[in-house]
Amino acid sequence: MTNILILGAGFGGIAAALKLEKKLGRNSDFKITLSDRNNFHLFTPSLYEVATVYGLIEDNFNQYLRGSVAIPINEILKGKKVNFVQAEIKEINLEDKVVATGGGAKLSFDYLVIALGGETEFYGIPGVREYAYNLKSVDDAVAIYKKINDLYKTDKADRTYKIAIIGGGFTGVELAAELGCCVGKIIEEHKLSRTCTTISLFQADQNILPAVTEKARKTIEKRLKDEMVRIYINSLVKEVGPDYIKIGDGGGALNFDIVLWAGGIRGSRLLESLDLKLTKKNTIEINEFLQAKNSNESVNDKTFVIGDSAALIDSKNGRLVPAMAYVAFNQADAAAENIINHIKNHKLKAYKPFYDVWIAPAGGKWAYFHYKNFNIAGFWGYLLKQLVDFRYFFRILPLKKALALFFKDLVIFTKND
Questions:
Q1: Based on the number of CB atoms within 10 Å of its own CB, is 167 exposed (0-12), middle (13-18) or buried (19 or more)?
Q2: What is the C-alpha separation between 99 and 105, in angstroms, rounded?
Q3: Which alpha helices (H) appear in 164-278, and where do they start and end?
Q4: How far is CA 261 from the centre of its chain?
Q5: Where are the domains of the chain?
């Protein structure tokens, strides 16, 4: 029997499991195993929505809110011939082809798909890990949601609330804009002055969203300012404290009630012990077939890497393929096909990266949608985003469950609009 082991149930891991099951599930000569520390698949594109929702009546554990982005894996794999193992991965032994889990179990494999996702990159900045709110997990998002809502329960007389977001990439922009909508609803309900809150977005580079066009950036910047967001470029954060941040060398402390971190990601620390070629961000260098490169530049032909764990150079422009959800999904399809080709001794197919499409939601029913030369901003961009979200739900869930999740999210996340 050929054992195919997939590590990580993010966008890449789920897609790889479903594609392999579709191709091999009826063949008893193959066993497909998916392993993740969580028993749910996290829909990360909506984490910023969880963090900024307002007006939701919840239980103490916020189960209803969590369920808007945490999709049970047993619902995704129901009726599928995929063995799911919930476990914390402790060690990956490529030589012996075995993975050790925190519970003492060992998972053997013939083919391995590494789709572990990324970890937050703190860049060694003092205080970020300890004092800034991160946005990487559902627990992180719920913690921000609680903090924002608790903040306005304090004495409001002559009070100015100050919120800082560090990082002007897509996550920082989405979070800042939706916070503007959230704060707007809070101000309206409590009859506060619109000037009682400042939302500051700090970007170390000379531009927010450095990967987008100048025209798109200007449009999004205008939207941010309409949502009460102040943008500070060329503002490298040097230190974060319990209620302050410091910008640049020798800069004074700027006081804030809450500091949110959206500064970037790096590869899982699990990868550090592997005899594979790693980048400075701890991601694995791979070839055009999505196979891992060993430290000596040879290829580990039965180890495939996708998503945030992978570092692939686009031959068209010499740049790294960006870490995006749909890129991980597409890489999973390509990796699954190549595993099957390798098993059958067929020629492998080179993965052709495509990432000239992105969506930047910026508060309420507004988003900037870009696809090649097609651009649209505003309500129609928002509708296209909803369509993309539903399409994904339908790819991993039966229609009835996909519709239920989609409309549940609409009900929850339109409270700020």
A1: buried
A2: 8
A3: 170-190, 214-226
A4: 14
A5: 2-37+87-120+265-355, 128-263+358-413
Sheet holding 374-378, edge to edge: 357-361, 367-371, 374-378
Residues comprising the chain, all counted: 417
Listed in sequence order, the DSSP H helices in 155-307 are 170-190, 214-226
Residues 6+ apart with CB under 8 A from 400: none
Could you identify the residue written with the tokens 């040879």?
Answer: 298
d(CA 239, CA 246): 5
For residue 329, what is the enclosing H or E element? helix 325-343
Rounded to an integer, what is the distance from CA 59 to the centroid of its chain? 26
Residue with tokens 């580990």: 300
pLDDT (tens place) for every residue of the chain, 417 residues total:
899 999 999 999 999 999 999 999 888 899 999 999 999 999 999 999 999 998 776 676 688 899 999 999 999 999 999 999 999 999 999 999 999 999 888 999 999 999 999 999 999 999 999 999 999 999 999 999 999 988 887 766 577 899 999 999 999 999 999 999 998 888 888 888 878 899 999 999 999 999 899 999 999 999 999 999 999 999 999 999 999 999 987 778 999 999 999 998 999 999 999 999 999 999 999 999 999 999 888 999 999 999 999 999 998 888 999 989 999 999 999 999 999 999 999 999 999 999 999 999 999 999 999 999 999 999 999 999 999 999 999 999 999 999 999 999 998 998 877
Q: What class has domain 2-37+87-120+265-355?
A: alpha beta
Contact criterion met (CB below 8 Å) for 101 and 86: no
83-86 and 30-36 strand pairing: parallel
The reply to whether CATH 3.50.50.100 applies to domain 128-263+358-413 is: yes
Cα–Cα distance, 362 to 178 (Å, whole number) = 6
- DSSP-assigned letter for residue 133: B
Q: Are 387 and 397 in contact (CB under 8 A)?
A: no
Closest to 266 in 3D by CA, of 134, 133, 412: 134
Q: Give the tokens for residue 34.
A: 């998916």
Is the Cα torsion angle 235, 236, 242, 244 positive or negative in sign? negative
Which structure tokens are listed for 221? 């910047």
Dist. CA 49–CA 179, nearest whole Å: 9
Q: Structure tokens of 337?
A: 């096909």
